[in-house]
Specification:
13 helices, elongated, 469 residues, 9-stranded mixed beta sheet
């Protein structure tokens, strides 16, 4: 495999340049444009057109559902670096636009008196040249007539300026300026005109030369030579006369992408509107994001006493809220302490009960004693001894039932079962296969009788008697 064609230093320089570009992009303001409530089809399209104006520093494919609240959008905006919200809504009386600064506000509420969509503006033009390359860079913001009319006007101008990245006139690249956003303030009507357009064309050449520089060539079938077109501009209609003058002609400090836009040459700035249009009127300014104290209102004016009363009521509300939160925290702590105390008390009771039942619960368990393992053996031997008495008619030998013999020496009851003792399951029909131990002993006694004869007794069976026979 061949080499990539770039050295190690070139790759490192490119990676560092990409990192710087990402940091610069993250430092720029970003925005969300969406609608809230039942906006309608026209207002939905207007939000998409405003989103088109804010490109590329906006979420072009943002989807906000009905179940998503404003808090959800704020929570998502933080990690993404979003700094502004533009929210459009509609009521029965009018359409509104809210401009919010994240994360702490303020919030500006505008009433949209008039608006025109991009498709309506473009359809009214004779010809337009709107392409996707115009939206690769943010527009150039132009604010007009924002003078010293009041603090609310100054705040509006600051909010609009912070919507877009700042421009250094000494280092800006003119090729990045493809669009222009004009916001004009009318002090008499207190309305804002929102317009969106830009185009740069060369000037100083004849109309025929300009026509040749364009994409479509003129009809030269009636001309004898091309010099007639270049010199006089013959064959061109009067509607193609360009009203350029000192008001829109400038000398380019650097080359601009376009036919005839050369450095140190005269070019004209022509503004072709591409939409949308909006006529805005400021309604109110609030401190927070969607809520907070009203700093300015266009229709409601309150005295100083009313403002102080509202402020006192809000402070009292906040105080009561803090008091309820503290009381709730104390109740939670108290319940937690009671729960821990009850748990400790229960564990102590369980430990005491185990100590009374087993002695020292911390000592090692030595295991069950042999007496406990053989506790049921005397009872079984006693039953077998009783059956031996009934079958043979004599007392059993001590070697045959040692436990019964030991109890007999101690003076305990011989051959008598405890009163009220429950019968074990499986002891039914003791004479006909009720207990396997009894059957086993019965067979042993029969073998003894067969050896000694029918008249032999238990006393004749012994070491001496067997030696005598």
């Amino acid at each position: 495999m061949g080499q990539s064609g770039r050295s190690r230093h070139q790759k490192r320089a490119r990676a560092q340049a990409q990192l710087r570009n990402l940091e610069a992009y993250a430092a720029q303001p970003h925005s969300f444009v969406f609608t809230r409530g039942r906006a309608g089809r026209s207002v939905q399209q207007l939000s998409l057109d405003v989103r088109r104006v804010m490109e590329p520093l906006t979420a072009t494919r943002l989807q906000v559902r009905k179940k998503n609240s404003l808090k959800d959008c704020v929570a998502v905006a933080g990690p993404l670096g979003v700094t502004h919200f533009l929210i459009l809504s509609k009521t029965d009386s009018s359409v509104y636009l809210k401009l919010m600064r994240l994360p702490g506000g303020p919030t500006l509420t505008f009433q949209i008196n008039k608006y025109t969509l991009i498709r309506d503006v473009v359809s009214s033009l004779r010809r337009h040249r709107m392409h996707e390359q115009q939206f690769n860079h943010p527009p150039l913001l132009v604010l007009n007539s924002f003078g010293p009319q009041g603090m609310h006007v100054k705040l509006m101008a600051t909010m609009f300026q912070n919507l877009f990245p700042s421009i250094n006139v000494h280092t800006v690249n003119l090729n990045t300026i493809k669009r222009c956003l004009l916001i004009n303030y009318n002090p008499d009507s207190q309305e804002l005109d929102f317009r969106h357009y830009i185009k740069v064309v060369p000037v100083g050449a004849s109309r025929g030369m300009k026509k040749l520089l364009q994409e479509k060539f003129p009809n030269m079938s009636r001309l004898q030579d091309i010099s007639e077109l270049l010199a006089t501009g013959a064959g061109l209609s009067e509607s193609e006369v360009e009203p350029d003058g000192e008001h829109n002609t400038t000398e380019l400090p650097q080359a601009v992408a376009g036919r005839g836009n050369m450095q140190a040459q005269q070019s004209a700035i022509r503004l072709t509107e591409i939409g949308p249009r909006m006529t805005l009127q400021l309604i109110k300014i609030q401190e927070g994001v969607g809520n907070g104290n009203v700093l300015f209102h266009s229709f409601v004016h309150k005295t100083e006493e009313e403002l102080q009363a509202i402020l006192a009521a809000k402070e009292e509300k906040l105080r009561l809220k803090a008091q309820r939160q503290n009381q709730q925290a104390e109740n939670v702590q108290r319940k937690q302490e009671l729960r821990e105390a009850h748990k400790k008390k229960s564990l102590a009771g369980i430990k005491r009960a185990r100590a009374r039942a087993d002695g020292d619960s911390d000592a090692e368990d030595p295991g069950a004693p042999p007496e406990a393992l053989g506790a049921s053996q005397p009872e079984e031997e006693e039953d077998d001894a009783e059956y031996f008495r009934q079958a043979v008619g004599e007392e059993p030998d001590e070697d045959l039932f040692p436990t019964v013999a030991k109890r007999r020496r101690r003076g305990g009851p011989l051959g008598k079962k405890k009163q009220g003792k429950e019968q074990r399951p499986g002891n039914k029909g003791r004479g006909q296969g009720g207990n396997w131990r009894a059957l086993k002993l019965r067979g042993k006694s029969q073998r003894v009788k067969s050896k000694l004869g029918p008249r032999a007794t238990h006393h004749n069976v012994g070491p001496a008697s067997r030696r005598g026979t």
